[in-house]
TrEMBL record:
Species for this entry: Kitasatospora paranensis
Record's keyword terms, sorted: DNA-binding
Pfam families, per database record: HTH_3 (PF01381)
Protein name, UniProt field: Helix-turn-helix domain-containing protein
Top-level division of the source organism's lineage: Bacteria
Chain ranges of the HTH cro/C1-type domain: 12-66
Listed SUPFAM superfamilies: lambda repressor-like DNA-binding domains (SSF47413)
InterPro entries named in the record: Cro/C1-type_HTH, Lambda_DNA-bd_dom_sf, TransReg_Diox_bact_type
């Protein structure tokens, strides 16, 4: 399963590393704890929109750029996941059809015994 928080963390980490900045520098500028920012980058914590805005401001990058990069990575991950499925896997029904028993035969394959009602009706 593809985790959005993991992709977002990867993008934020790359942005920070491209700038040659440390976690400590960015966490101070974003006013978020070093440990929490580290967990966000590792995809262990979900970043709220407010926290994401603060991190983007600290990195001097537009949130739309970060989200676009996350979206691109999500698309690639989905395509890669689909490519691992064979065509047969895509066409296989989820539930196998169950044949119905012939009239007068129960599911175990035996003919039910007549009841008193059947004898009276005959």
């Amino acid at each position: 399963m593809i985790l959005l928080r993991r992709l977002l963390g990867d993008v934020l980490r790359r942005q920070r590393q491209r700038q040659g900045r440390t976690l400590r520098e960015v966490s101070a500028a974003a006013r978020v704890s070093l440990g929490y920012l580290s967990e966000v980058e590792r995809g262990q914590k979900e970043a709220s929109s407010e926290l994401l805005a603060a991190i983007c401001d600290a990195l001097d990058v537009r949130m739309s750029e970060v989200m676009r990069e996350v979206s691109d990575e999500l698309s690639l991950a989905e395509l890669a996941a689909m490519a691992t499925l064979s065509e047969g896997d895509l066409l296989r029904p989820v539930l196998e059809p169950v044949p119905l028993p012939a009239p007068g035969v129960d599911r175990a394959g035996s003919v039910p015994k007549a009841s008193a009602m059947d004898v009276v009706a005959a």
